[in-house]
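Before the break, one more example. Copy the sequence into your notebook; we will annotate it together after we see the structure.
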Amino acid sequence: MNADERFIPLVRPGSGPASAGPPIFEHIGIVGLGLVGGSVALAARQAWPSALVIGVDRNEVVEQAVVLHAIDVAASDLTIVSEADLVVLAAPVGENIRLLARLPEYIDKPVVVTDVGSTKRAIVEAASALPPNVVFVGGHPLGGSTGTGIQAARADLFAGRPWLFTPSGPGDAEPGAGVQEALRRLSEFARALGATPHTIDASRHDHLMAYISHVPQVVVSALMQVVGDAVGGEGLAFSGRGLRDTTRLAGSPTDIWADICASNADELGPAIDALIDVLHGLREHLDNREAIAGVFEAARRWRAALTDSRG
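Here is what the structure looks like once it is written out:
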């Protein structure tokens, strides 16, 4: 691939909505322009029209980003992020770790790096091998959508949603001044994109996500397989909104979730075991009204708490 094929100039910086203030980062590199990475790009260009937003992905993806005006320049390799002040890794979890290790080959100036992955311990540990000029703070914006890919990206995806940052892992010392300054700037960045930043330990993050994100995905995928295998396409045609609403997550991308399950297996396994115990109890006491009622009433209480917590 020659240089002309690698670099694709897009819209000029400065076009778009009025700026919310001076850019927190002048040059923002986003590696992976799917739903989340594309939404970060759109939101950043909306917040800071004068900033340069750089995209890295396959040629067919960056071509779609041209239509969306999501980025200012793009390439299919990391060379283009050499002048970035911020690099956001928005590929699947395993690929983010591989990309993180390669960044020092391309960037010899001070740079802040974060990611958007759903597990944090592995990448925080990998970051310990980075040279001093590359300051990494793990990140996880909790914004989602039923859609996937750059086509589903939205500038308002993070509005009103938490954005978790993990500057340290289990047993790590207090983050140094460089990491603390990077965390401060990233928190401002998240706020400008409409999110609410929170700081959390990487281990606590992965335990929490196992229950509030990863188990729901695994359960819904398993449920959809069981139902589909049992009744087939003809049977599914008779289903109501209950099944459709319950299994919305079953359309999630396989590559992303295979990485998530592998990187959080030690937390996800016990969470699945806890669910199996409850299901086994239900299976053994289907004719016991009190046993059934106990599960349903607990579920109703926690559902109400979930609804209240979201406003």
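Confidence is low (pLDDT under 50) at residues 1-18. Residues 202-236 form the longest helix (35 residues). Try to locate both features in your own notes.
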